[in-house]
Design brief:
The complex is a heterotrimer of chains A (87), B (114) and C (254). With 87 residues, chain A is an all-alpha fold. Chain A has one domain. Chain B has one domain: Helix Hairpins. Chain B is built from 4 helices and no strands. Chain B is elongated and about 65 Å long. Chain C has 254 residues and is mainly alpha-helical. Chain C has one domain. Chain C contains 9 helices and 2 strands; from the N terminus they run H-H-H-H-E-H-H-H-H-H-E. In chain C, helix 4 runs parallel beside helix 9. Classes of the chains: A mainly alpha (87), B mainly alpha (114), C mainly alpha (254). At the B-C interface, helix 1, helix 2 and helix 3 of B face helix 1, helix 2, helix 3, helix 4 and helix 6 of C.
């Protein structure tokens, strides 16, 4: 049980760092979805199923969806302007 | 080991803030902000955890079984949903900022529109 | 301030802040040993007092009901902000997607995605309603169930049927549902005042723990919050989709 908890904590810390270090927003949305799932697993290990349900529905589905839609809009606008935006 | 979740929460907060401070793209900064927010959920739930306890739902188990703290669970679950909505608001702001300034780079947003 | 200078200043500040945080956090009781009294007290009395099997739901909607009302209104305000920010500006036009179908660059969705996506819409709505109504008996409640319900609308868009989704006018439905949910929560609170107790007191008949109609106002508040969260997320989704797929600036490509 203790080994499971330690593994999950280290996985959460690593996934959070990976989200920040991924600079391209499109890739970051996918990594953020994975981070949401890992957080959901951690809340499950914490014996808090309500919070885990909340986190999985929001952090793995709703939030990356909105990021992707915002990026799609920015890409459509950029295609019209012809401006090369930085990453 | 006895303080590992607190260390993880502090680490995630600082890493998230680092991402916001050194970001070159507004959408990237908003996702890093949500990472920093998630560190507070970890801290809250660590405070309320009781080793050997079960979930605080007493439908199958009798009342009086050792269970984890319900108050921090209640705080965290409303927080998660509301945090996502606020991130949506920030993303809408970023889209409008791109429309009017042509760039998602925070460095270039402060200048005159050229 | 140049980026490298900013990064260095931040790293110094982060080291100091990290040291202070660790010094403070290691003063907390050991992880896994729960010291505070409130959790134990609530776990013992909540089921008998409020007849709700899920103590977390009892805390969210009964013992700390007014905090949840505040959170609900933060959600309401954030969705309001998104709706205002993403409305069509003066120089933008609206091009509904079935008009420019001839020059769409994106490939049509595969039949497998369409079939599975659309077949799942019904079960997802049913599951969302189950999670909302059984919030006081099993893990779940208004917040989680509301997001699951909004995912059903998302499935319609992902299956490539955005034109159909638009025809149902999700903004109107989302708007109506969200306002009804938010007002419903306050109305249940005022019910407590009308019955002679305090605002948001649990004044409906309590029933037996484990039954579907138990715990007084908690299932009603769950329904109100579920309606509000579902309406809010559907509104968010439809605003973002409309901004991305319909509203066009001069000079923008599809």
């Amino acid at each position: 049980m203790i080994a499971l908890e330690v593994t999950v904590f280290l996985l959460v810390a690593a996934a959070g760092t990976a989200v920040v270090l991924t600079r391209d927003p499109l890739n970051q949305a996918i990594v953020a979805s994975f981070y949401g799932l890992v957080l959901g697993i951690m809340f499950f290990v914490y014996q808090a199923p309500d919070v885990a349900l909340s986190q999985i529905t929001v952090g793995a589905v709703a939030l990356p969806l909105m990021i992707l839609l915002a990026l799609a809009k920015v890409r459509a606008l950029r295609g019209g302007n012809g401006e090369d935006d930085d990453r | 080991m006895s303080h590992l979740p607190y260390v993880v929460a502090a680490w995630l907060l600082l890493v998230g803030l680092y991402g916001v401070v050194t970001s070159r793209n507004l959408v990237h900064a908003i996702t890093c902000l949500s990472v920093a927010q998630s560190s507070t959920y970890i801290l809250l739930l660590s405070v309320g955890f009781e080793r050997g306890g079960t979930a605080p739902i007493f439908l199958d188990v009798p009342v009086g079984t050792k269970a984890v703290d319900p108050v921090v669970g209640a705080l965290a679950l409303t927080d998660i949903v509301v945090g996502a909505t606020v991130s949506a608001l920030l993303l809408a702001l970023a889209v409008q900022a791109y429309k009017h300034h042509g760039s998602l780079d925070p460095e270039r947003l402060g200048r005159e529109q050229d | 301030m140049t980026p490298t200078l900013r990064r260095r200043v931040f790293l110094v500040a982060a080291v100091v802040a990290g040291a202070l945080l660790l010094w403070g956090l290691t003063g907390l009781p050991d992880y896994g040993v729960y010291a505070g009294p409130y959790g134990d007290v609530l776990n013992r009395v909540a089921v008998a007092e409020r007849k709700a099997a899920n103590v977390v739901a009892a805390v969210t909607f009964d013992y700390r009901g007014i905090d949840t009302m505040g959170e609900e209104f933060i959600l309401f305000a954030a969705v309001l902000g998104v709706a205002i920010l993403l409305r069509a500006q003066r120089d933008e036009t609206e091009q509904p997607p079935d008009e420019d179908a001839a020059d769409r660059h994106a490939p049509a969705t595969s039949n497998a995605v369409r079939v599975v996506g659309l077949a799942l819409v019904g079960p997802v709505v049913l599951f969302g309603l189950y999670v909302v109504t059984h919030g006081h008996l099993s893990p779940g409640g208004g917040f989680q169930g509301g997001v699951v319900l909004a995912t059903a609308a998302l499935l319609v868009y992902l299956s490539g049927e955005y034109v159909t989704l638009r025809r149902v006018s999700p903004e109107v439905i989302g708007d109506l549902a969200e306002s009804t949910g938010a007002a419903g929560y306050v109305a249940v609170g005022l019910l407590g005042v009308a019955a002679g107790a305090t605002f948001l007191a649990n004044v409906l008949p309590l029933g037996e723990p484990g039954a579907l109609l138990s715990a007084g106002t908690i299932p009603v508040l769950n329904l109100a919050v579920g309606l509000e969260v579902a309406g809010g997320f559907v509104l968010l989704l439809s605003e973002f989709l409309e901004q991305t797929l319909v509203i066009r600036r001069p000079g923008e490509v599809t």
